[in-house]
Each structure stands twice: as structure tokens, then as C-alpha cells.
Target: ribose-phosphate diphosphokinase
Amino acid sequence: MQSENLSPKIFASSQSVVLAEKIAECYGMELGKVRKNLFSDGEYQVCFEESIRGRRIFLIGSTNPPNDNLMEMLLMIDAAKRASARHITAVMPYFGWARQDRKDQPRVPIAAKLVAKILQAAGATRIMTMDLHADQIQGFFEVPVDHLFASTILLPHVEDLKLDNITIASPDMGGSKRAYAYSKYLKCEVVICYKQRKKANVIDTMEVIGNVEGRNIILVDDMVDTAGTLTKAADVMMERGALSVRALTTHAILSGPAYERIEKSDLKELIVTDTIPLKKQSSKIKVVSCAPLFADVMRKVQTNTSISGQFIM
Model:
């Protein structure tokens, strides 16, 4: 029973140190010490430099590609299990490989399910993440999953803009549920973009379902990768008479030509969270930290307190 009274500890993977430091500060404790030893061939080893026996530990690290980010999380989980940690919560602000959540064509993997199985096999006893690409990914796990929504921190930012004639927009049909949730909270209209792709990250055509003329548009999505969809949607909506177009996205992957597209587009502002660190700064990109939200939920998990109050839509 003595282990039940031990305070938790927070550790970070190398790519999420900045966010983890913010979370630890919001939680009210220092980040734990973990060392990463590199071998000349690229292999690496993680080592906790303090005792974690009998404690609940939170391992913070987004698992976006490259594969090293996921592998480092797995090694940390395995090391914690072998060091007799009592509970191991994998805090993955961005859950990588989530876009492969189903078989959409013959002979392809369901990578999200595979990653879920690997995390559990490594020894994770709880998962904490934000804005999964598909809600059903929670069902891939046989351990508790705390699925947080960035709307908790992004919607107050929208209200602070004090815009008139707001319309929420989804950049594709798959994001319509998210768009309707935002519109319900803000009590405004919704428009949907219908797009067709020739291949991944390449848009063939896009149409807007709904009226955008004379409206301040706010696009909402769970991630922005190459920014092709968001910038195309912004340009199309401005052509249709929109007053302005902003975008709210949780995960700023921003790969390939993303930054260049954003700078050249009609997007007035792109608001993202810090689940993934920005590769570089942009005058059009504003970052809202998710650290206070994660710290609060982690505290509630530690004290076995309900987290339902964190969901505002």
C-alpha cells in the first residue's frame, strides 16, 4: 500500500522535451531524468537515471514519423516495466500512424491497430492522446484511453477573436463531425469541402458545399501535413466571396512544401497546438499550448478524479 502514496514522475522522449517541460511545470514538478545512449550504427538505448519502482509514471512523446519517435517511446515503456513502475501511462499528444485506421484498399495494413498492439505489448497500462485521426482507434486498445480534444483550448481562442458572421468549415467530408461540434458550440453555420484525390497529399478537385459569401470562415481539422487541403480550401472560399479564412488544426505536421503553401495562400492565420514542435516559425502560424490541459488531466488520473469537465463540446 505504501507505493500507492508515492508521487508520480514525468519523463520525456527526446523530440517532446520542450512540451514535456511545460507540462511538468503546469503539473508542479520537475521533469524526470532519462538518458539516451547512441550507438554508431544508429541504435540507441534509453535509461532512467532515478528510481521509478512502485510509482505511476507518465512518458510524454508524440510518435509522428520518423520511426525513431515511436521506437523511443516503446523502449521507454519497456525500460519502465523492467524497472518495476506501478503504472505506465504513454502520453502521446500526437498518435502517429493514425491515418491508417482501416483497409481502404486490398492488401494494405491497419497501422494504427498495429501500433496499439505494440504499445500494449511493451507494457503501457494507459494511453493519453489528443484528437485522434479517427475516434474508433480507441477501440484498438485493451487498456484505458484518455482521448482529449483540442477544442477545449482552441474554442476560447476563437471567442477571443470576436469575429462577426462566423462560419465553421470542414476541409473534407471526414471532418464534418468535428465541424458540426464546433458550430454547435459557437452557434453558427457549417460548410463542407468536397475533395477528390488522385493520390495521397495530391488534390484533384475541390468543391464547397454551402454559402461562404460575406462570412469569416474558420476551417477545423485534426492535422495539417503538406497543407495542400487547407490552402486550397482557403483559396476556393476567398474566390467564393468569403471575408477571411482562418484554420484551427491540432497537429502541425507541416511536411514538404507546407510552409511555402501557407505563406502564399489566402489563409489569414493558422492556429495550431504544440503537440508537435514547429520546424520553423511563420508569421501566419500561431501556437496555443496544450500543456495545461495535459497537466490537469494527468493530475486527475493520478488522483482518480473524473476528467469529464475537460470536455466542452
User: Anything to note?
Assistant: Residues 151-288 form a domain with the Rossmann fold fold (CATH 3.40.50.2020). The chain has two domains: 2-148+291-310, 151-288.
